[in-house]
Amino acid sequence: MNPLLAGYRHTVGRRKTAVVRLYMRPGNGAFVVNRRPWKDYFPEEIYQLEILRPFEVLGLDPSRYDMVAYADGGGIKGQAEALRLAIARALLEEDETRRPFLRKAGLLTVDARQVERKHYGHKKARKSFQFSKR
C-alpha cells in the first residue's frame, strides 16, 4: 500500500463494469479522483449531487473528510455511482449506527445489473433482425 495513504479508511464500490477504490479519513476537505480535483473529473452537477448523497442523508459535512479515489472501467455514470457506494461504505465503517439511514436511502444496495451480451443471430442482445415472410 502507498505510504501516503496511511491512516485512510479503504473501501471499494462497484457498478456495471466500473470499480472505485476510495481512501477516506477525517481532514480538511481534499477530494481527488484519479489525481484530479473531483469536480473536474465529474463536471456535471447531477453526478456531483449523487456522489455527495451519503453525506446529505447523514447530515454530515463532506469538507470534514479527505478523500482519494481511483476510478477504473465503465463510464462516467457508473463511476459516479460506484464512488457513491464506496463513500457510503466508508461512512458506515466509521460508525455502524449509520446503517439504518444509509439502508433506507438505498445507498448500501449493490446494483449488480450488467449489460447482457449480444447473441448469435440477433441484432443486439434480444432484438432480432426484421422478419420477412417473402
Gist of the model:
The chain has 134 residues and is an alpha+beta fold.
How would you characterize this protein structure?
- This protein is an alpha+beta fold.
- The chain has one domain: Ribosomal Protein S5, domain 2 (2-Layer Sandwich).
- 31% of the residues lie in helices and 22% in strands.
- The chain has five helices and five strands, in the order ββββαααβαα.
- The chain has helices spanning 38-41, 45-51, 53-58, 76-94, 99-104, and strands spanning 9-15, 18-26, 31-33, 36-37, 65-72.
- It has a five-stranded mixed sheet with strand order 1-2-5-3-4.
- Strand 3 and strand 4 form a beta hairpin.
- The radius of gyration is 18 Å and the shape is elongated.
- The model has no long low-confidence stretch (mean pLDDT 93).
Descriptive key words:
5 strands; 134 residues; 5 helices; single chain; Ribosomal Protein S5, domain 2; alpha+beta
Question: Mind sketching the topology for me?
Answer:
Elements: E1 9-15, E2 18-26, E3 31-33, E4 36-37, H1 38-41, H2 45-51, H3 53-58, E5 65-72, H4 76-94, H5 99-104
Parallel strand pairs: 3-5
Antiparallel strand pairs: 1-2, 2-5, 3-4
| Separation, N- and C-terminal Cα atoms | 65 Å
Q: Count the strands? A: 5
The fold-level CATH name is: Ribosomal Protein S5, domain 2
Question: Can you tell me the residue ranges where pLDDT is under 50 for at least 5 consecutive residues?
Answer: none
CATH architecture: 2-Layer Sandwich
